[in-house]
């Protein structure tokens, strides 16, 4: 009985005996005329009828992969390291105006930096590299035209630079390709338009925030802001199991208050943030110079590795790419703010550029980008870290969706002192991440933050104001005493403990205490 044959990426990886982070979709060709699909652990494997067999050439399978498996930049970059460039050139030359041949030609030069000996295309329509219905893309560029004599124009498009200091283009004349990738060759994650994201994108986050803002008195929102800053700070530390002193807490709060006033995603400012939020003994003056990893001690002689960061020599290029990608997306309103924030914030924590403070900066960048992109109304902030803390399974998944398959790609050694050495070239795995899972998770966190964390904090203050007023009508106590009474009762299911009655509130009568307790239970019934 004939077996299913691999096609596309799987065919090429098996042919060249390469390992790669699994693509979300893989293909096989069956011996019959039927088509079937298997979905397991979020991965889709489709078996196509025999008539789909692409052929034996590498170019045939690259074309098949782009058509049916999607664009996976990391796998394509890995394959370009071993595929014979001369044979690939011949294959492209045999179909120079073909849609997928032009994309493969562009990707070869974009990912390798090498130029194939092929002439520029002189005619034909421009095509988008990424199909907008399947991926989040930058806005299609409008070609520039060269001015000629007599104030007329030669309608031959020129390549457009998205950044004059870098060799990055929007419209590429050579292959007549619109480069609508969200990033740069140094750092270019891909985000697929899944059904889940399409559903979440239909939620108008800004409008939902404005509905909350208008539902509460302005003076209460102003008071709430201080509580929200503190809540976000506390949760961000708790995620990392850190108990900060008041000085470090105040530092983070001060940082959060500046998020809407300045774009912090540049090297010097990221270093400045790191210096402000970590113990002074662990401040960095540049990106880290050693191999970093996240692990836990299992036994005296065994360390369990959870995540391995990029090699220090790869960091400058990766971080330059991250910053350039941020600037590119900031100019492109085509990419939603949540997608933008997820790519940069998760990209930052995956690159792990500092010895300490990476997680807190990662979460701060979410706030910073939301504020810069005007997703959050002025004077309001999302305690996103609280949603992450209260949904640890989802937060861990958002990190492990990349870290778990990555570990299988890294060849490393640990010495007796815990120093790690990583072998081989690993940069492509960090450079070209599929961040669909991270974007989906951040959308969920944002929605949970608005509907649960934010509303909970505001409703608490509303309840507090009502409770305080009711207590003042029962007993005219100092504010400090009222605050303490409410706090102690909320900690004890709405009742004041006998010990606290005797030691703190012994001047009150039993009737007064019962009426005050009733006021608390009424306003905090939920």
Q: Major sheet, described briefly? A: 4 strands, mixed
What is the approximate shape?
A: elongated
Uncertain residue ranges: 141-169
Percent helix, as a range, is 40-55%
Radius of gyration: 28 Å
**Any idea how many domains?**
4
CATH architecture of the largest domain: Orthogonal Bundle
In terms of structural class, how would the helical and strand content be classed? alpha+beta
Mean pLDDT: 89
CATH class of the largest domain: Mainly Alpha
**CATH fold assignment of the largest domain:** Fic-like fold
Distance between the termini: 64 Å
The strand count comes to 13
Query: CATH superfamily assignment of the largest domain?
Result: Fido-like domain
Strand residue content = 5-15%
Give the strand order of the largest sheet, numbering strands 1, 2, ... along the chain.
1-2-4-3
Figure out the total of helices. 20
Description:
This protein has helices at residues 9-15, 58-69, 73-80, 85-93, 99-112, 195-201, 205-215, 218-239, 246-257, 267-277, 315-330, 337-351, 358-372, 384-390, 392-407, 427-431, 436-474, 479-490, 498-503, 510-523, and strands at residues 5-7, 25-29, 36-40, 43-48, 127-128, 144-147, 153-158, 171-172, 177-178, 293-299, 302-308, 411-414, 420-423. By secondary structure, it is α+β, with helices and mostly antiparallel strands. α12 (337-351) packs across α17, α14 packs across α17 (436-474) and α17 packs antiparallel against α20 (510-523). The protein is built from 20 helices and 13 strands. It folds into 4 domains: 1-116, no CATH class; 120-181, no CATH class; 195-451, Fido-like domain (Fic-like fold, Orthogonal Bundle); 475-523. Residues 141-169 have low confidence and may be disordered. The chain is elongated, with a radius of gyration of 28 Å. β8 and β9 (177-178) form a beta hairpin. The termini are far apart. The strands form 5 sheets. Strands 1-2-4-3 form a 4-stranded mixed sheet. Strands 5-9-8 form a 3-stranded mixed sheet. It has a two-stranded antiparallel ribbon with strand order 6-7.
């Amino acid at each position: 009985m004939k077996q299913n044959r691999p096609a596309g990426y799987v065919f090429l990886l098996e042919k060249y005996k390469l390992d790669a982070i699994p693509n979300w979709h893989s293909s096989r060709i069956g011996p019959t005329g039927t088509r079937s699909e298997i979905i397991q652990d979020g991965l889709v494997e489709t078996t196509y009828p025999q008539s789909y067999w692409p052929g034996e050439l590498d170019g045939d399978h690259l074309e098949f992969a782009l058509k049916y498996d999607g664009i996976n930049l990391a796998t394509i970059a890995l394959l370009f390291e071993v595929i014979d460039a001369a044979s690939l050139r011949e294959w492209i030359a045999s179909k120079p105006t073909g849609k997928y041949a032009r994309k493969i030609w562009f990707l070869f030069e974009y990912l390798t930096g090498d130029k194939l000996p092929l002439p520029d295309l002189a005619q034909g329509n421009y095509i988008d590299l990424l199909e907008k219905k399947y991926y989040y893309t930058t806005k299609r560029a409008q070609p520039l035209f060269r001015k000629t004599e007599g104030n007329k124009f030669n309608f031959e498009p020129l390549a457009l630079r998205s950044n004059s200091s870098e060799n990055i283009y929007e419209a590429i004349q050579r292959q007549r390709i619109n480069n609508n990738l969200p990033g740069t060759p140094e750092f270019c994650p891909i985000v697929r338009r899944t059904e889940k994201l399409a559903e979440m994108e239909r939620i108008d986050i800004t409008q939902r925030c404005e509905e909350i803002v208008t539902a509460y008195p302005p003076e209460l929102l102003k008071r709430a802001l201080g509580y929200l800053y503190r809540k976000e700070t506390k949760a961000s530390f708790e995620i990392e199991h850190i108990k900060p002193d008041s000085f470090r807490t105040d530092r983070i709060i001060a940082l959060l208050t500046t998020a809407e006033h300045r774009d912090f995603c540049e090297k010097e400012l990221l270093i400045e943030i790191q210096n402000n939020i970590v113990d002074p003994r662990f401040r960095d003056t540049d990106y880290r110079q050693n191999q970093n990893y996240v692990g836990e001690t299992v036994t005296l002689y065994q360390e369990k590795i959870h995540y391995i960061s990029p090699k220090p020599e790869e960091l400058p290029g990766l971080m330059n790419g991250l910053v350039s990608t941020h600037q590119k997306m900031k100019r492109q309103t085509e990419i939603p703010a949540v997608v933008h924030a997820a790519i940069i914030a998760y990209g930052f924590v995956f690159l792990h550029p500092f010895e300490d403070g990476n997680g807190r900066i990662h979460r701060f960048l979410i706030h910073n980008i939301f504020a810069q992109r005007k997703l959050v109304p002025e004077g309001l902030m999302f305690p996103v870290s609280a949603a992450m803390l209260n949904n640890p399974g989802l937060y861990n998944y958002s990190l492990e969706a990349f870290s778990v398959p990555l570990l299988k790609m890294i060849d490393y050694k640990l010495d007796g002192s815990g120093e790690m050495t990583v072998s081989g070239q690993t940069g492509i795995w960090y450079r070209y991440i599929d961040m669909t899972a991270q974007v989906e998770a951040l959308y969920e966190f944002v929605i949970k933050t608005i509907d649960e964390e934010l509303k909970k904090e505001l409703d608490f203050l509303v309840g507090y104001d009502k409770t305080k007023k009711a207590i003042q009508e029962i007993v005219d106590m100092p504010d400090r005493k009222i605050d303490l009474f409410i706090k102690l009762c909320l900690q004890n299911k709405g009742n004041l403990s006998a010990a606290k009655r005797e030691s703190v509130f012994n001047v009150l009568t039993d009737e007064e205490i019962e009426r005050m307790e009733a006021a608390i239970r009424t306003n905090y019934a939920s």
